[in-house]
Amino acid sequence: MPEHFWLLFFLALDLLLSAVGFFLCLSDKRRAKKGRWRVPEKSFFLLALFGGGIGILLGMHLVRHKTRHMSFVFGIPALTVLNLTIQVLLLCFCYGIFC
Predict the structure, then answer these.
(1) Does residue 47 have a pLDDT over 90?
(2) Is 59 left (phi over 0), alpha (psi -120 to 50) or beta?
(3) Using CA atoms, how far apart are residues 87 and 90, in angstroms rounded to an integer?
(4) Predicted local distance difference test score (pLDDT) of residue 95
């Protein structure tokens, strides 16, 4: 296993989930304009919790999606910080920084 496997794993996971989050915002915005079926809000929060928060934040601001919902304005950044904190702690333990 490469020396920095876990670091690369979390970076790749975050990039992939952030791309999914951004395109989910874009898709939901388009659906809202057309009056079609929408993505459940729970999906955005779960995706932010598991690593897609940065993409969702970009999507919120670039396509002006969900920016009036206080649960999104405060919840998505909070879940993003929580996710990144957990990842940093896991990486520190994996590489023996706290041992």
Answers:
(1) yes
(2) alpha
(3) 5
(4) 79
* 74 vs 98: CA distance, rounded Å: 31
- Hey, where are the domains in the chain? 15-94
- Name the residue type at position 24: L
pTM of the model: 0.84
Q: Please report, in angstroms and rounded to a whole number, the separation of the first and last CA atoms in the chain.
A: 21
Question: For 17-40, what is each residue's pLDDT tens digit?
Answer: 999 999 999 999 999 899 999 999
Check whether 68 has a pLDDT greater than 70. yes
